[in-house]
Amino acid sequence: MDAIPPSHSGQRASKPGNMYPSSNPSPPPVRRNFFQKLWDGWSALTGPNPGKDTLETDLFAQERLRRAHLVSALLIINVVVLMLLVPSIFPSSPSIWIPTAILFVGGIIVAISNRFGNITLSSVIYVLQIDVALVCFFCFKPAQELYSENMTSLDLFVLAVLVGGLILPKKLIPWSGVLQIVLICAIFFLRPHNISLDELVQRSGSTYVVLVPTFLLHVVGTTLAWLHAWSVERALIRASQAEELAQARAEVNHQSLIIAKQKKRLEEGISSILETHRQVATGNLAARAPVHEDQELWQIGQALNLMLMRIQQQAQDYRSLQMTYREIEQLITVLNETRAGTRPAFLPPCRTPLAQRLLMTLKR
Question: Under 8 Å CB-to-CB from 30, ≥6 apart: which residues?
Fold first, then answer.
């Protein structure tokens, strides 16, 4: 029941730098008929204000939103009843125009309360306006006495029970049934009785027997209303659990995908490091492991490359030292032979820095 964002006709806007618009056009807007537009306007007038942060997005908040829409729908019944009662107000007894005024004022209060997101308050006021209208109907009747034929009229209080089962929270539904029974008893015992009603009580044996059918009707109605609210609550709990399970599965799948990617990167990093070790084992000290900071083993690869660079540098220094040693040995040999007179003074060329410095010194 989330608010549906307005649909936009035409194609989606292309990304910056894209010369061609998107090839996936948005779906065409759904055309609503006259009654749907009329309901949208009525909901905007009597339903929760979408600009107010009065309703959340969880399932139980969506249930409150469902009850708010039901209150808006029941207010249409108020309007219909008022339209039917208005022609009979003038001339009429207070038993007609007082309940009509109560329904009119109560409907306005319910609409305002529902508009501001007070769903439970508006539901309670709606049920109470039905009770008050019915009580006024019985209290302001031209005939002050209750007849035996009026007993069926007391069954009208079951309307409050049925309406309460639709819009009241589950915990308030039993109290609504108790309220109806209390009002029925108050009307029956406080209003004067006609002779026909007294004769009915005498034939039945007790007042309780006369009221039992009405009591049973309200008890059964209250029970059915409570069971309906309980089933809706259980359905919401199951839907909430199903949603949490779906979220958990999606999270597990996401984590599995992340783990699979990490495993793939680990395998690639291990393979590249092993390949570098194999090349070094064959004597290629210039081999380096590829280093990417988005991989898990990049620090190990970086440390390996640093170690190989130092080993390569030490190997180069060792070769340079060996070459310097051989050139100095050659110079010493030439000098010894020259002093012994067995070879003319001929100095061989030198390539290493230390041997070159020694050769320049000897030439001086």
Answer: 7
